[in-house]
Amino acid sequence: MRIKILGSAAGGGFPQWNCACPNCRRLRDGSLRGRSRTQTQLAVTSDNQSWYLIGASPDLRQQIVSCLELAPETGTPSSPITAVFLPSADVDAVMGLLHLREFQAFLVFATPAVQQILKEENHIFRVLERAKPPVAWFSLPFPGQPGRAGANDLRFNAVPTGGEFPDYVSDELRGTLPAEQAVVGFILEQSGKRAFIAPSLSGRRPEWKTWAESSDLVLIDGTFWSDDELIHTGRSKKTARQIGHIPLSGPDGLLAQYPKSARGRKVLLHINNTNPILDEESAEHRAVLDAGFEIAYDGMEFDL
Amino acid sequence: MRIKILGSAAGGGFPQWNCACPNCRRLRDGSLRGRSRTQTQLAVTSDNQSWYLIGASPDLRQQIVSCLELAPETGTPSSPITAVFLPSADVDAVMGLLHLREFQAFLVFATPAVQQILKEENHIFRVLERAKPPVAWFSLPFPGQPGRAGANDLRFNAVPTGGEFPDYVSDELRGTLPAEQAVVGFILEQSGKRAFIAPSLSGRRPEWKTWAESSDLVLIDGTFWSDDELIHTGRSKKTARQIGHIPLSGPDGLLAQYPKSARGRKVLLHINNTNPILDEESAEHRAVLDAGFEIAYDGMEFDL
Q1: Best label site of A63, A164, B268, B303, fewest CB within 10 Å?
Q2: Do A58 and B126 touch (CB under 8 A)?
């Protein structure tokens, strides 16, 4: 399988439109050694013909237009994009569906809870019904459950990674939704190779370590360096853990908790604009590389 | 007043992600003499400090990040964007509000019907309530009505330009909404100067001619060259007029109907990817220029 990173930043991207934190300010004035990044978005193929999107980022139009492999071939509509896999109902995971409103039929895979949120409380996603046939929705299978998503011999499974339903969901609906359907990661398997993709990892459920240990490629939550990062930079009053992200640093952080026996490539994804690892001259950037992690960037690509 | 065009294409932009019409195909392979364009978005200021957005395009993050004047100055959040004026509830006019979800307080001006559509049937826009204070919504004043939008001596008024509520609105809600609140243009006035901005003009209501005649700058619907353009290129089974756009050509088209006595600059905006005027070597491009019109492009700017 082939995996392309079309976007590698957390919600809002890097720089964020209204943020003047040290990273964003220095990126704008050219004094930061580092790269701008669009919001997290992956594209996967097993045959270089059909492409599957993981996530539907707010920057998706820009990301597709700048990716040659995703250009339509002939006729119209004729995009090679055949399915979209949604990890959650967060704005930065679903807003991009609205970019795909141009009369194109494709499949959407999401947990039943995420589907309910979009269909029952957000009529704007009905624009996807204008395609003929309309966009078709399917439930994501969890490992061991019946059901299957994918094509050829590429198989997708969802794994709950902890985390919350978005704030915008009504209290009435939220009360009826199973917590494990809020945020998922993905296991991709083909030809004996496995990729584990978890842009949002709460760290509250231990299964992630098993998947990290047994995968050839792990694309994993690198949102925040420290638990209080958003508070320090004035962006929020909540900690990283409170909004569903295990921070990289600290004794309970991702770097320390990552299984020592894991042999696959490990790549940090979904990096927030406030994260000091975005500064390639920082001690934190160095620490992450020294721990054997790579840092995802827009345009990075993997062949498994 | 100063008006910047951040985006000049119709919904989907140019090229469109899944379109291989002659324009899109030739733009991709480099054989078209013409420019790529993001979706229609304007920014207006009267003091070079506070900026007002007209529309909230799906490309808004990209558009803000590439516009130096819209960068935040100090602290966070500290964007110079203070208000957003919505011309309709169409996806390409409102989706960009979701790009502005990063804890920033600003004002949104829209007709009561557009507000109802977003608030009652689309909970995802509640992300704007996370700002402290939350984003505040106001009704757009029509000319002659009490109420006022703007700052310093810059005044905004809305004028109905005909057109439909979007397909995604439920039949129940649609039945209760006044038709003249579906799609509006804007009259901007300051220091004796007037701009008329109508990216969607149905041509069904005659008032637009009065506004076009009496304005120093007219930014007006250049979506389609011909009424059957979408049908010819296989993008839809509807005509331009059926979806609320007067075409440029023909005896009842915009070029022929435009008031001869108008003295202001006249600029075509909201240009669809299928429109032959995007090809700078086409007869249609030449015909538009010969008729005294300019064709908007991303980055175009006006001082009044």
Answers
A1: B303
A2: no
